[in-house]
Amino acid sequence: MRQVFSILVVDDEPSIRFFLEEALKGDGHEVTAVSSGAAALEAFATTHFDLMLLDLQMPGMNGIDVLKVVSERHPDTPIIILTAHASLDTAVEALRSGAHDYLFKPCKITDLRESVQAGLLKRQRTVRQRELLSELQLSFETTAAKPDRPPPAAVPPPASNANNGEDEERFLRLRNIIIDATRHVITIDGKLLGLSPTEFKLLTHLVSEYPRVLSPQDLIQEVQGYPSEPWEAREIVRYHIYHLRRKIKDATGRDDIIHTVRAVGYTIKHH
Question: Which of 35, 37, 138, 227 could be joined to 66 by an S-S link, Cβ 3.0–4.6 Å?
Answer without folding.
Answer: 37
